[in-house]
Amino acid sequence: MTRAAELKAQLELERRGEPFLLYRTGDGEQRLFTLEPATSPVTIGRRDGAAVSLAWDSEVSRLHSTIERIGADWVLIDDGLSRNGSFVNGARMLGRHRLEDGDRLCFGETVILYRDPGDGQSYSTAPLPASALTIPLTPTQRKVLIALCRPVNESAFATPATNKEIAEEIFLSVDAVKAQLRVLFDRFGLEDLPQNQKRARLAASTLVGGLLTARDF
Asked: What distance in Å separates the CA atoms of residue 77 and residue 56, rounded to the nearest whole number?
């Protein structure tokens, strides 16, 4: 599937306002899974029969976790069945976690982005491939994104780089890095999120959406 076709598929789901999962296979192909009440519970695991089958990822258990509709929310449930656990925005979770638009879910080495365009607190933007086509990035902003995402690219369990780490990698001051990140948060519709979520969601959308590729690292 071409990048334009992938973007069209994402935008069609966003217009419908229904929550969905966005991820890539081991071969880099985009996958979209619409979350509907009738599909609950959604099983995630390595076996072929899972609703979201991650058969290419040897770090994923046969039955890893589930996503269930509880009331008006979608909830990630990990009851300890998986060997390597489930992570949300870089933090390991056990039990139940209510999902919010833009959450980065990690199972094994696979990253899945949870989108809920109909969420009242949703950021009003598509995953970054759409933004990248309409909003130009300066060379410095691209370098900031690469440095921000580098730890997460190396390990799905890592957290994005700190301002100090970014500054050291691209030879800017910490204040200059902060200024560049503020612009990126604004351009990609993340400025209203809590401060502790902005970096993780920017990194998640960048990597899952394919704005940066292996060649960038």
From this structure: 22
Question: Which CATH number fits the domain that encloses residue 178?
Answer: 1.10.10
Distances in whole angstroms, Cα of residue 62 to Cα of each of 15, 18, 51, 65, 91: 33, 27, 12, 9, 22
Same domain, 56 and 143: no
Query: Is 204 within 8 Å of 89 (Cβ atoms)?
Result: yes
Mean pLDDT for 154-176 is: 88
- Which CATH number belongs to the domain containing residue 70 in this structure? 2.60.200.20
User: Which of these, 84, 31, 72, 28, lies nearest to 53 by C-alpha position?
Assistant: 31
Length of the chain: 217
Task: Report d(CA 112, CA 98) in Å as an integer.
Answer: 15
Count of structural domains, the chain: 2
What's the predicted TM-score (pTM) here? 0.62
Q: Is residue 120 part of a domain?
A: no
Q: Determine, yes or no, domain membership for 123.
A: no
Work out the pLDDT band at 171, boundaries 50, 70, 90.
very high
CA distance 203 to 57: 21
Please count the helices (runs of H) and the strands (runs of E) in the chain: 6, 11
For 34-92, write each residue's pLDDT tens digit.
999 998 999 999 999 999 999 999 999 999 999 999 998 999 998 887 888 898 887 88
Look at residues 169, 176, 21 and name the one whose alpha carbon lies nearest to residue 106: 21
